[in-house]
């Protein structure tokens, strides 16, 4: 049965807010995973740029005694070379975690705002956002 216009607008706002929160949760999870996995690359490239005389040329002791321009260039190149495999690892970890937590199934369709009696979610075992009694046949991944 269709909802009234005001009720439909209220439910649209509720569903939009819920979907926005789920999106922000996914974005935060992705940011944390990528930051942790790419930390070696970030550190290596940072020290390479910090100690190179053509870029920042820091006056730190390790830049003068350990790293010269050639070793700084090597650090920069090494950092960008190891970035590609680490990006793949970070994406695999995020996808695995999102699949295990069923985060992509927490998004709700806007058709719930139009009609009364719709279910709030697609239930899966252990899904944090789902209610009881929903359809178990729907999956985000096959």
Structure summarized in a few sentences:
The chain contains five helices and no strands.
How is this structure best described in words?
- This protein starts with a helix and ends in a 28-residue tail after the last helix.
- The longest helix has about 35 residues.
- It is mainly α.
- The protein contains five helices and no strands.
- Helix 1 packs across helix 4 and helix 2 runs antiparallel to helix 4.
- The protein has a domain of about 90 residues.
Report the sheet-strand fraction. Answer: under 5%
Uncertain ranges:
125-136
The helix content is: 55-70%
Instruction: Please outline the major beta sheet.
Output: none
Summarize the helix and strand pattern as letters: HHHHH
Query: What structural class do the secondary elements suggest?
Result: mainly alpha
Count of alpha/pi helices: 5
Query: pLDDT average, as an integer?
Result: 81
Q: What is the distance, rounded to the nearest whole angstrom, between the alpha carbons of the first and last residues? A: 32 Å
Radius of gyration, in Å, reads 24 Å
Q: Judging from the principal axes of the Cα atoms, what is the shape?
A: elongated
Strand runs, count: 0
Protein name: TMM88 protein
Main location: membrane
GO molecular function: PDZ domain binding
Subcellular location: Membrane
